[in-house]
Amino acid sequence: MTIGKKLQTAVNKQVNAEFYASYLYLSMAADCEAGGFPGFGRWMRKQSEEETAHAMKLFDFVLDRGGRVELGAIAKPKSSFGGPAKMFEEALKHERKVTQMIHDLHRLAVAEKDSATAVMLEWFIEEQVEEEKTATDILDSLKMAGDNPAALLMLDREVGAREAAE
Asked: Smallest Cα–Cα separation from 18: which of 42, 49, 62?
């Protein structure tokens, strides 16, 4: 069964949102590294790679379903975030927005009676639980560290030890 036009348009919008997320995290990486936090920068680079992989998963799904991928312009993210804690607050806020978008897309797939898309989106729903938890955990640690340079250095190293994108 070919993906319907309404759902194809919505998935294409999500592809753009995932590429924007990748771009946002890359901008955050640049800000971290410029601010002397290479570990947080490395984590943000890995997160950017993961978001690109999410976009490509959706991209390939549309093509596999006989649809047409239509790429739109990617909005420019800001380039300064006010330090690691504020940055992770923004990352968490963004992940919550993406979670809502995925839930809305899943509801549309169910309404359109497109089981294949609904099932594929369940992977993204689970992924968003992990994304929000990870951002929350790091943010909680940053709040505990406050302005303590030794604690921030330790967190920078710990967060920077993240392996390849999942």
From this structure: 49
